[in-house]
Write the structure tokens for this entry.
Amino acid sequence: MNPHGADRVLLGHGSGGSLMHSLIEGCFAGAFEMRELLDSALIEAGGARLAFTTDSFVVSPVFFPGGDIGELSVYGTVNDLSVAAAEPLFLSAGFIIEEGFPMDDLKRIVDSMSRAAVRAGVRIVTGDTKVVEKGKGDGIFINTAGIGFAGATDLSPRKIRAGDVVIVSGEVGSHGIAVIAERNGLTFDPPLKSDLKPLNGLVKAMMPCSEGIRVMRDPTRGGLATTLKEFAMASGLRIRIRESEIPHLPPVRGACELLGLDPLYAASEGALVAVVRPDVANYLLDLMRAHEHGTRSRIIGSVEEAGPAAGTATAKGQVVLETMAGGERMIDMLQGQQLPRIC
Amino acid sequence: MNPHGADRVLLGHGSGGSLMHSLIEGCFAGAFEMRELLDSALIEAGGARLAFTTDSFVVSPVFFPGGDIGELSVYGTVNDLSVAAAEPLFLSAGFIIEEGFPMDDLKRIVDSMSRAAVRAGVRIVTGDTKVVEKGKGDGIFINTAGIGFAGATDLSPRKIRAGDVVIVSGEVGSHGIAVIAERNGLTFDPPLKSDLKPLNGLVKAMMPCSEGIRVMRDPTRGGLATTLKEFAMASGLRIRIRESEIPHLPPVRGACELLGLDPLYAASEGALVAVVRPDVANYLLDLMRAHEHGTRSRIIGSVEEAGPAAGTATAKGQVVLETMAGGERMIDMLQGQQLPRIC
């Protein structure tokens, strides 16, 4: 038996939740230098302080309401750099294409990447194309790696303190649910679209108050719940959020009810969650709301000391949801695979 | 009909040869900033002059004589940076794994990457894992992107001049033929193994004479023939090579005869070809031969003015092979797909 609990790779190992964490800890962490579960690595190269990140995109279908795999592969990596408070500069693009993939679809995806790069202000400067036999891939997979300029701001969930405030930049969960709905042939009125967009502009708008930001993340795979659980575990504190304050678009709620999904675990690709110092929370909210991608920013909760919880020895690393009904619910990481291949 | 001549992606579009060139020119070049067909992009980030590159690895089988996909994914990217005269520093690693892939194989591959990174002196600092459903991938695909420190040396095939000399660092074609032989269940005595190894040490040893190097490349997909054809086309000159001087290991020749393959088009993953100024060729050969990975370095040809050739208006961009039999043969890029999925 393997230390990570499974002798074969499961879909859930790529879900962003607890299985992926066990894979990272059991397989990758010892071999590579990814000590913290951050979206970007901070590196020093040639005297420059840079952020470096990578993501492979295997979303199915490749065209979905609100975007496509090309745009997603650009904004996904731009956003991973952005939430590290880095300014995205350069991207690489690696394509793995299944034999027989329509050339027009490839062209459409590449054009979409090109437009996305212009919109986000980054340059795609190097690339690679591999083709695999029919049946050995699934249309197209795209990897992007990104390099950003990292300023003095050093964010980490270990910097979180009791009393801090949790902010989201807008509705969460739209991307994952839009992809799943498309895959299931569901349509909504008003239409349910991915929130896919670049976050570097919003983050730049927040930088006048950068010293008040403890950590940021774009809650993709595993959703808001998994991101907050990671923050709570890394800080050893307890995070308390209020369900009534967490913004989801009505079609996201509707689709989740229909499909039996929890929107707290659904991916966003154009929202960020930040834990910030309480004394600057309102200033940051003003900065965020003044940016087109942050108009609906709001506080959804706060951080507490992890004193002993009822029935347990400690509340370290807990996330507590105050439900609309007035109760409390413990939030864990995504277990297994709720939504495979949403990015 | 699409401008790049096919309405669906073919295996040959990933082969490194003429179809891939038409795909790059017809689809990627206009959309991205990959103006030259170089293995690495040169970028300026935070005041530092860096090289940036990416490669996806889809080799089948993932374990082959002389290495595995993990090692290949590290050395492949290390070598792309090295032949740009950059010092490889940091790598990212993106995994796309098919559901059901044995966890022990994953662990073995990851350990192999870790050892390869140590051997090449690079750090794997950021990563990503995606899992696709059984039948939607093929075991494991790995993308690596790499960042290197680029010195003052600026290499380009456009710097090639008539009179220059063509050097290879050792036997070529072993990697591609070893993978194909393994796939076909062929064994050889002595065994045929991939030449997979990091080239940054060898390139570092050549740097005392860096000003004499016009361009370097590790001839992977498409082999030595395709690399030289690219050099000839970019420079507008003619390259003449002598078959008798091109080193192939005996089992490579044997396997090629058996399989009907041309070793000139077979990939190397641990050899480099350099075009150098004639006055420093012997000094460079001395430097290369003093390094463990360059002991068998030799001159295989030279560059000529592209005067009018017999029967054609011009000889610009031609590669001429002087055969062992005393004749001449025009060398073109790899057409279609000789060896799919060898890297």
User: Anything to note?
Assistant: The two ends of chain A are 30 Å apart (CA to CA). Residues 35-149 of chain A form a domain with the 60s Ribosomal Protein L30; Chain: A; fold (CATH 3.30.1330.10).
